[in-house]
Amino acid sequence: MRGARIACLVAACLLAAAAAAADAPKGNAPAASSYRPSAANQAARDWFQDARFGMFIHWGVYSVPARGEWVMEHEHIPVSEYERFAPQFNPTQFSAREIVALAKRAGMRYITITSKHHDGFAMWPTKQSRWDIVDATPYKQDPLKALATEAQRQGIKLFFYYSMLDWHNSDYWPLGRTGHFTGRPQAGDFNRYLDYMNAQLAELLGGDYGAIGGIWFDGMWDKPDADWKLERTYGLIHRLQPAALVGNNHHRTPFAGEDFQMFEQDLPGENSAGFNKAGISDLPLETCETINHSWGYTRNDKDFKSAAQLIHLLVRAAGANANFLLNIGPTAEGKVQPEFVERLQAIGAWLGTHGDTVYGTRAGPISPRSWGVTTAKGNRIYVHILAWQEPYLVLPPVGGLKAAWDFDSHQQVELTDFRGQTLLAVPPAAAGSIDRIVVLER
């Protein structure tokens, strides 16, 4: 019954999307005029910008070998051999309640979890194949449903990551940059694959999981010049859930129909990773990062960033007008590493006293500098001094300032005009200080 309802729903939505796109340019870049965000969508964008901090969860059968979510590609594992990990995936220690509660303690406002990664494995009981957590594993439960229920109960928004790239589906053809060692047939129907993808998305957005924050796409970079028919897929999403946000990690200037722009392991405007070459759009922004060097659980990766380093990344993201999406990769048993828990709780404790300088802010009037960033909200500018040892800091001129004080001590801070710029007396750092914050009031 559920499968028939989803099939009818997706068929109706795809027909409506096709009709709406009939006069639009073909390919992956529908005309900007072909999409106008609804009032619900615009409100969701505003909420998203205010949220500033979210939890990323990379989790799937790749947690069994515990060598990262790219293990199938990196070790040239064919489909027939990779499928043997599924009977070993039995995360009986997974607790949606504990993970959502951990996100809340960390000060996170939303969760984005991998519904399907590049290995094609669905973390819900999809009706489109049997390569999913209910049909292919002894677990026989739907963790996405448990998370959706618990997130709604605890007041957290839930987003679904979805990989457009698929190393398992034989219709993902011709192959792109990856997946050349999977042993799949050397033929397929890419249009049929897109129908498969849209049918899975309709399952995720069709109502069984409630109101979803949005879809976080990845993998289009594998076949960047293919005709992905984005206008059809984005139209489907916006029709099923008008408030749901669409983002696509394709490393390009956003296409029409996308509602936020993400930067993988980089702040907006930076390109240390080598693939964040797109300019910064006017859409809400997000940067995603790992606590160690891995997205999926990697047993031997013990090089963890400190809580202070992660707080600095969160603050720098806010100063670049972006959210910070911080990743955890649960084990095959469903547990979160204690090193992750410890750091998330430390971030939450810091946000408990300093959250006003992050939540609901936008980038401040002073652009990011080596010493730190500024955020702004209402008539206040927050100067986050992250790396500066001198007693004074020269700032560009900021007009109309009425007062300045240290955020932690509430003591007045001296401001002096200096050759047309502003000379700020830097408050002394308290023991264990992570971020010296000066409030400038207009």
Amount of helix: 25-40%
CATH superfamily membership of the largest domain: Glycosidases
CATH uppermost class of the largest domain:
Alpha Beta
- Kindly provide the radius of gyration, computed on alpha-carbon positions and rounded to a whole number of angstroms: 23 Å
Structural class: alpha/beta
- In the sheet with the most strands, the strands line up as 5-4-3-2-1-8-7-6
Task: Just name the CATH architecture of the largest domain.
Answer: Alpha-Beta Barrel
Give the total of domains. 2
What is the rounded distance between the termini?
60 Å
How much of the sequence lies in strands comes to: 15-25%
Q: Could you tell me the mean pLDDT?
A: 93
Gist?
The protein has 442 residues and is α/β, with parallel strands linked by helices. It is built from 10 helices and 16 strands. The protein is 27% helix and 18% strand.
Walkthrough of the structure:
The chain has 442 residues and is of the alpha/beta class. The protein has two domains: 9-24 and 38-361, TIM Barrel, CATH 3.20.20.80; 364-441, Golgi alpha-mannosidase II (Immunoglobulin-like, Sandwich). It has helices at residues 2-20, 39-51, 71-74, 79-82, 96-105, 143-154, 190-205, 230-240, 307-319, 338-354; strands at residues 53-57, 110-116, 157-163, 214-218, 245-248, 261-264, 285-289, 322-328, 362-363, 372-377, 380-385, 392-395, 403-406, 415-418, 421-425, 436-441. The protein has an eight-stranded parallel sheet with strand order 5-4-3-2-1-8-7-6, sandwiched between helices. The chain has a five-stranded antiparallel sheet with strand order 9-10-11-16-13. β14 and β15 (421-425) form a beta hairpin. α1 (2-20) packs across α7, α1 packs across α8 and α9 (307-319) packs across α10. It is globular, with a radius of gyration of 23 Å.
